[in-house]
Amino acid sequence: MDFEPIIQFDKQLLLALNGSDSLFLDGLAMALTTASTWVPLYVALFYLVLKNNENVRQILLVVACAAACVLLAGTVDDTLVKPLVARWRPTHDPQIGILVDVVDGYRGGKYGFFSAHAANTFSVAVFFCLLVRSRALSVALVAWSLTNCWTRVYLGVHYPGDILCGLLWGGLVGFAVYWAYCRIYVRMKVGKGFISSQYTSTGYQHSDINVVLSVLAFTLVYCIFRGCLTLA
């Protein structure tokens, strides 16, 4: 099969979606794509796990599974897939690199297939969607992952195809890790059956979920503020 037409379409789509003349969007994308921006979210998710699990074993199981998502999704990508596939990032691509709109000199590493940002965030999002079973949290986490994906294309450090493959791999990892979580959890012989309106079906309290949603909202406000600073 000849992949060249698909590759060329991917490049043209990247050039159509990459960058803008807006300094605000430049600053917003840089703030959203920075890993440290999302530390409060990770802390909030840990708080959610801490408050809604009965013992240390259960807490450690969830934390280990979340770590496994990142390890299998992003680390496998960075250490194995990117060096083996060796597809140039758009910013380093000899064919179109000069056409890519670069923000603040940010170009990323040499290779970009597939996107670790997409794989990492989507694997974590899928795992917590299945774990918590809250519609509001699920929508918020998927939106968080897709927002991270948008920043990678906007900044020109990933092709849309890199993002799509990253999402597919991340989703597969998230489902696989949750399946492993369920197998281990059952062996702990912990029976949970929640029918109270204060809890989700898996035993997570809505008020604690609201803490995570609030942290996400405040983080977005922070990123918008960072974008506004570029206009000053």
Descriptive overview:
This protein is mostly helical and 232 residues long. It has one domain. Helices cover 68% and strands 0% of the residues. It is built from eight helices and no strands. It has helices at 4-17, 23-33, 39-51, 56-85, 116-132, 135-154, 160-187, 206-229. α2 packs across α6, α2 packs across α8 (206-229) and α4 runs antiparallel to α7 (160-187). The termini are far apart. The model has no long low-confidence stretch (mean pLDDT 94).
Report the structural category: mainly alpha
Number of strands: 0
Radius of gyration: 19 Å
Which stretches are poorly predicted, pLDDT < 50 over at least 5 residues? none
Please tell me the overall pLDDT: 94
How many domains is the backbone divided into? 1
Looking at the structure, what is the overall shape? globular
H and E string: HHHHHHHH
Q: Beta-strand percentage?
A: under 5%
Number of helices: 8
Kindly report how far apart the N and C termini lie. Answer: 51 Å
List keywords for this structure.
232 residues; transmembrane helix; 68% helix; mainly alpha
Explain briefly what this protein structure is.
With 232 residues, the protein is mainly α.
Secondary-structure map:
Elements: H1 4-17, H2 23-33, H3 39-51, H4 56-85, H5 116-132, H6 135-154, H7 160-187, H8 206-229
Helix pairs in contact: 2-6, 2-8, 3-8, 4-5, 4-7, 5-6, 5-7, 6-8
